[in-house]
Specification:
By secondary structure, this protein is mainly alpha-helical. It has one domain: Tetratricopeptide repeat domain (Serine Threonine Protein Phosphatase 5, Tetratricopeptide repeat), CATH 1.25.40. Helix content is 80%, strand content 0%. It contains six helices and no strands. Helix 4 runs parallel beside helix 6. The mean pLDDT is 96.
Length: 102
C-alpha cells in the first residue's frame, strides 16, 4: 500500500495526531502536491503551534513557491515557538534558514 494511503488510514483513526499530519504533508511535498502539503502544515500549526518542526518545512515550501514574505513570517514564528520550548536545535535550524533567506 502506498505510504500516503497508509498515513491517511491512520489519520482517519486519529485525526488530531500532529506527527501523522506532518508525515502526510512531507509525503505530499515528495510528489509535488504543494497546496495539499501547505494546507496540512497550516492546519497542524493552527491546532498545535508547538509542533515546531513543521515551521521549517512550511517555510521552505513557501520559499520554494516564491512566497518569500510568508516564508519569513513562518520562520520568525517558528523561532519564537522553538525558543519558548527551549528547543535550541530547531531554533538554530530555523534561524539558519531564515538568515540564508534574508
Amino acid at each position: 500500500m502506498h505510504r500516503i494511503e497508509r498515513i491517511k488510514e491512520r489519520l482517519a483513526a486519529n485525526p488530531c495526531d500532529s506527527f501523522l499530519q506532518h508525515a502526510l504533508a512531507l509525503e505530499y511535498i515528495k510528489i509535488e502536491e504543494d497546496e495539499k502539503a501547505r494546507a496540512l502544515f497550516e492546519n497542524l500549526l493552527k491546532e498545535d503551534e508547538n509542533y515546531v518542526g513543521s515551521y521549517y518545512h512550511l517555510a521552505k515550501l513557501l520559499e520554494r513557491n516564491d512566497r518569500i514574505k510568508d516564508a519569513i513570517s513562518v520562520y520568525e514564528q517558528g523561532m519564537l515557538k522553538a525558543k519558548e520550548k527551549g528547543d535550541m536545535h530547531t531554533y538554530n535550524e530555523l534561524r539558519t534558514a531564515y538568515e540564508d533567506l534574508i
